[in-house]
Amino acid sequence: MKLKKKKRGGGSYSSSSMSDIVFMLLFFFMVTTTMRDEEIMVEIKLPEATEIAKLERKDLTCYINVGTPIIPLQSKYGTDTRMQLNDSFKTINDIRDFVAAKREQLSEADRVKLTIAFKMDLQTKMGIVTDVKQELRRCQALKISYLADPPKK
Amino acid sequence: MAKRSTPELNAGSMADIAFLLLSFFLLTTTMEQNQGLPRRLPPMLEQEEKERVEIHRRNILQVHVNSADRLMVDGKPMEVQLLKEMVVTFIENPNNEETKPEKEDKEVKGLGIQKVSKGVVSLQTDRGTSYSMYMAVQNEIMKAYTELRNTFSSAKFGSEYNKLTEDQQESVRGMYPLNISEAEPRDTGKSKKKK
Predict the structure, then answer these.
(1) What domains sit in chain A, N to C, each tagged with a CATH number?
(2) Residues 26-65 (A) with a CB less than 8 A from some CB of B
(3) Residue B191's pLDDT is what?
(4) Measured between CB atoms, does A98 come within 8 Å of chain B?
């Protein structure tokens, strides 16, 4: 029997499927991506907790960041604990506007589901945390979540 | 008509473009999922309706954390790690002690009339308490409730609370409602504020 010998081509192979693979990866990352929407200006090390639950929907969450300013900003803002809303340092009195602005963006049905996420450094004193909570109660924003990290093993 | 030969598209650079986009998304991606302890704040009461809700002394577990992050439960100092057991026995009250919370008959969704503990954990902090200590205490209390709910749901439905259906979870929550009352913080270190 005579077997037909295949001619072996030298080295060149089709690379057109490469783009398919890369596109597949691309779509995966596009779907899972969430853009970094705000620049964190305070140093935050979250406390650890075991009984934590995932935040349900990101678009219904707004963050209140509390901590000491990051080192490059310390010359300007000092080392006292500050609160950051959106992209600037704010005081307790600004929370009302912050929550109102966030509510404005949401549809009528989603407004009650608005969750305020407390992103606070573990060295923060409870005084400021309580002030924030009292102000939120005044604004009727009652759904909150204390962000925490799962404990490291 | 003359046959037109369609020029073949060189797809080699396609991968390059896709890679470029891919690396952009790789860099901007944050995969981190935020996790946290969910809570509901009590609504702010108007001045007129600010009548105090009377709770019997035996139904309250007083948890104090002072400005030096020391924990005191019902007047006795305690380690954080032991708080969970304390809360579990407080809510459960297995021996129906006089000093532990009473149980009332309550309609629980899907389970009919059940004996539900009236126990409330009252958490009082100081303005100087650190957030990490506060979270540790909150976490310990939450652990106790998780344990209570898990024990109950294992006995009743045969699986852990997390694996139950929505309706079953609601029933279990009805059996063990999360009752944490947070008093206004005290300001022991500095001048006393009147509220």
Answers:
(1) 42-146 (3.30.420.270)
(2) 26, 29-30, 32-36, 47-55, 61
(3) 40
(4) no
